[in-house]
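S.,

Sequence below, as promised.
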Amino acid sequence: MLCKRAFLTVFGVLGLLGALGTCPVFGAGWKILPGHVPRELSKLTANGQLAATNQLRLAIGVPLRDSTGLDNFLAQVSDPANPNYRQYLSPAEFTSRFGPTETDYQMVKDFAQTNGLTVTATYGNRLVLDVAGPVAAVEKAFHITLRTYRHPMEARDFFAPDTEPVVDAALPVADISGLSNFKLPHPNSYKLSAAQQKSVTAKGGSGASGTYLGADFRAAYAPGVALGGSGQAVGLLEFDSYYANDITSYESLSGYTNVPLANVLVNGVSGSPGYSGISGAVDEVSLDIELAIAMAPALAKVIVYEGASQNSILSQMVSDNQAKQISSSWGWSGGPSTTTDNIFKQMISQGQSFFNAAGDSCAFTAGAGSANGVDNPNLNNAPSSSPYITQVGGTTLTTGTGAAYASETVWNWGSGTGGSGGISSYYNIPSWQTNINMAARSGSASYRNIPDVALTADNVFVVYNNGQTGGFGGTSCAAPLWAAFTALVNQQAAAAGQPPVGFVNPTLYAIAAGPNYSACFHDVTSGNNFSSSSPSLFSAMNGYDLCTGLGTPAGQSLINALASGNNTNALIFAPQTIAAAGVAGGPFSLTASGFTLTNTSGSALAWSLVNTSAWLQISPVGGTLAVHFATNLAASLTATASNLAVGNYSASLIFSNATAHVVQPGVFTLQVSQPMTVSPTNGFTAVSPVGGVFVATAQSISLTNLSGNALAWSLVNTSAWLSVSPASGKLVAGAQTTVTVSLNPVANSLAAGSYTANVLVTNNTGVAAVLPFTIKVGQPLVVNGGFETGDFTGWIETGSTTYLTVGNTAGYVHSGSYGTVLGPYGAVSDLSQNLATTPGANYLLSCWLANPKAGTPNQFFVQWNGATIFNQTNLPALAWTNLQFLVTATGTSTPLQFGFRNDPAYFGFDDVSVTPLATVAFKSSVRAANNFQLAWNTTSGIVYQVQYKTNLLQANWINLGAATTAQATTLTMTDTNAFLSSPRKFYRLIVQP
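The prediction came back faster than expected:
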């Protein structure tokens, strides 16, 4: 029986960890999980209880098996003097050594399922388990009541537990995300007001009103750097999605090629822009992607991780381990989280760098309980104080000619909006930060100080929200810029055969304490984080400060220092690979004129080069490099390259660091291409009924000689049904000729079937192209048009498939054994195919439609090549009806699409066909007495109408008799007494479906 049922599932919005609240008393066999009750609840009265049937999504954190061992390993992997320095773990190795045990993870799964919760996602690190279930099950599992309250600062209600969750003491659970939506994730970005936009011009960017766009950031912070992030991926943590056209528009405005984007959806989010409902969220995602590309335009890809729970997103990032540099421009509530920190530690162990926007509220006043404390669990500051990531503050940049760096000051718009800095009340000061005299900077010698570094956070041009443009500010801008800058570092490290830089803080602070600080950083000494709530904290000063940290990157010097990782004998050459390309015999072009060899160590290095290729020349081949000096090596091709056959060649370049006896390889690639171009590089596909006329019969092919020498050429054709003309010839240098490949009469005598043939275009250097030709005789263009496979084989289904099926239900089959039953409701769904067609050819499109039961709303439409040719809504009850359309193809692949919706009932749909129509061509005329007999080429089974005029200036054609169905490939019509009725007539034949 065909039936439908409407249903509604309500999902709770992500809630984040709250502050400690009141809890009932439990015995020793239980444990309380603090930090889930928002502090504000002590001042609020509940206005209701969350409906028991509402669905919530939770992320349950599971503790590490060896936290102490992991901390020891992280100290080793960050210590240049330790053998484990930058010897990173794979995700599987991390889990095996430090992650929760399989037994612990299974115990949490069993706990969830026993309490009526469904496991929705697991992660390889076993640190997080995603579950979903009704409110009643959540309350029972964690011994809480989820109440609703009116939000004290926002125009909405929120839900939260009135007591802290309680679980069995033996259950390995660290914390739970999703029990409250008091504070939603917050993007750390702001749009410039009209007044602010007008004041930007003096700053010197190339975007609208002087805002900074594209290569402006490279000109300021990576001037002259050839690195573009090649081979590297930047990962972005996001709580919403974006419009892809905004990114391509930004790239176009920046003069960049498109960087591939990969979307990873977590927590079951839709991936549609705006799904979070958070103000400014869609803008934030575009901003992050665009600024990552701005600093590193040659990235292999940007991976956009979209979800609702930060711990779920972070777990996916470490499990994938594809992006070695990650950025987050969001703050979330809950303060420090054990699970979040454990995932950050895993990132360090795997060599992943995480950059976090420090915040946009000026100075954080000390103390977790203070209104603006960095660790206040009720503010969206997390994870700003975590010592396991790099916290990024903001600056206002001023540039000179060509966006060259001029100066910077602390970003501070006033009224409490500016780059954040402060002191954690939770985390002790990390060892790598103890080399700074914090007392002189109003910082702490006992607790973590932020930020670590800074970058542009003001006057930034963004394309956002489906085509809007404007200026933005916020540390949201600075974090992805730093991640992309690290991609440049990791590209150079990879070129030298070195591992990624990983967690950069220990190296950054070591550089700052050494003699190269001024060469590696722009030290920002102007501005402050003052606001009305904090009128004296903090000021910029020489060296580290709690406004901009160590400062902003100073290009290649910092890249060298980070990539070398304090290696005292580091010889870096870039680019690692140079390529040349050309046609056999030349000419050739090089992607770069040579290499740059840089000494990134603290002492002079002697070097030499070994080159074993006869077709490549490098100069010079050796020398000595002073500390932090670079030399250029010129690359050129010898005469031998002109004698190489078509193919790909590579030359290994061995750079030897004679001081440290370290050998580093480089590669020079040469592509020698075919000197003759062939266009187009594909043949045609022709279709015809058996014994009929083909809709495509010939194709012209252009041959061009790109080389400096004459080329003898020929076309090799082994097919009996193809002809080529001319079949051979000779092209002088730079010349072009045209040949024709066409069907011959043999094609018209072929039996039903599909036939293919390859025509080879050759010359004295080899095969220039292989041209495929296909003819289909008596073959249907539509695959499974009658649905006789019993399913949708050959068809593409789009939209809801809940009430879309192939079956043998009576009333829904027009012919054969099967038909389709179409009943999607609420929105239109589609069935489509891409058909192999011939440009310019005509076709008859036919299908059968029935609507056994009347009812509204309903809709059925037909599209050919994207154009709607039939569209009707609220169809009445309808017996099987044949819909026919004359259509024309414009390309070799034509989409055919049917759309349908039937809320109260179902359509029947069957027997879809697309038949090629032979070009109507006049064949002959014969006079017999006063009668005139006419004959045309036609397609069997198609209805035609003969028409005439006695004067071509007449407005209308006159039908000659009734429409006639062609019974063969020739249609004959007799005009009786034609010579008696009129002295002259003009005739034509038209298709009449």
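Residues 227 and 707 are 33 Å apart (CA to CA).

Coffee later?
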